[in-house]
Automatic annotation (TrEMBL):
It comes from Cellulomonas algicola. It comes from the Bacteria. The chain crosses the membrane at residues 244-264. InterPro entries: DUF312_ALF. This is Gram-positive cocci surface proteins LPxTG domain-containing protein.
């Protein structure tokens, strides 16, 4: 197993360093090319030269202000185009440079890049923005990359095992481009190798807990005898039912008396 891990670590090192050859060249950055183009200045004389120079600025991929003004200048008169190329582009160009440095600061992962971007943004000389992007940023990024890779060595807080340690050592001994490639890709390959070679820790058996006897339920209370008192039924008008017979008898007597009085009066009249 150790021999296999050693061979896998060597494979990672060879992958990171490109088998001793130079690392593949990074894709050309169009913004870097345009920045060099702007720094070289304009040296044309004809209208076509002016149009060609403004056309380059109109193609800037991440410069909205520069691209907008260059496009407008190309659509205007030749006088407007010449005024733009002869210095009118500078305000828009440096506004976009400030935007680029702000993006670098937001994506910074180390102290060197963060400090450099903050200093460029705080400077009163707007040329410092371009100087940082051209010269300061690569140096600061390399310093931060070395700091990050050093944490992946054996004993470091980000180390995962011997494969990552070997790959990190090779990357630290390589070029800035190789170091960046290791951080972006190689470290994850090495971590996967370390994870695959790690011994499997047997799971600890779980001892079931002893059953708990159910708590005794309290005895149910004896039901209390409830005396069922028969309620007295209430009638709507005449009152309680116990008084119905007396009230009815009184009414009958009254009616009989009235009848006798009426009968006596009829006899007197006759």
């Amino acid at each position: 197993m150790r021999k296999m891990v050693r061979w896998l670590a060597v494979a990672v090192v060879l992958t990171v360093t490109g088998f001793g050859a130079a690392a593949p060249a990074a894709a050309a950055d169009p913004v870097v090319d345009v920045r060099a183009f702007v720094a070289a200045g304009f040296h044309g004389t004809t209208d076509d030269d002016y149009r060609a120079w403004a056309g380059v600025l109109a193609s800037v991929p991440d410069g909205p202000s520069t691209r907008q003004q260059a496009t407008a200048a190309l659509a205007g008169t030749i006088e407007e185009l010449r005024a733009y190329v002869d210095g009118g582009y500078l305000n828009a160009w440096f506004a976009d440079e400030r935007l680029r440095v702000t993006r670098v600061l937001a994506a910074a992962t180390g102290p060197a890049v963060e400090a450099g971007a903050q200093a460029a943004l705080a400077s009163s000389d707007r040329q410092d923005l371009s100087d940082f992007l051209t010269n300061g940023l690569p140096v600061a990024q390399y310093a931060d990359d070395r700091l990050m890779a050093s944490t992946m060595l054996t004993g470091g807080v980000n180390n995962s095992g011997p494969a990552l340690d070997a790959a990190a050592q090779a990357a630290l001994a390589g070029t800035p481009a190789e170091l960046r490639e290791f951080l972006l890709v190689g470290q994850f390959v090495a971590r996967a190798i370390d994870a695959a070679a790690a011994p499997v820790v047997p799971a600890v058996p779980v001892v079931p807990a002893a059953p708990v006897a159910p708590a005794a339920q309290p005895a149910a209370a004896a039901p209390q005898a409830v005396a069922a008192a028969a309620p007295t039924r209430v009638l709507a008008v005449t009152g309680p039912s116990s008084r119905v017979s007396t009230a009815g008898l009184a009414a009958v007597v009254l009616l009989v008396g009235v009848g006798l009085v009426v009968l006596a009066r009829r006899r007197d009249v006759a």
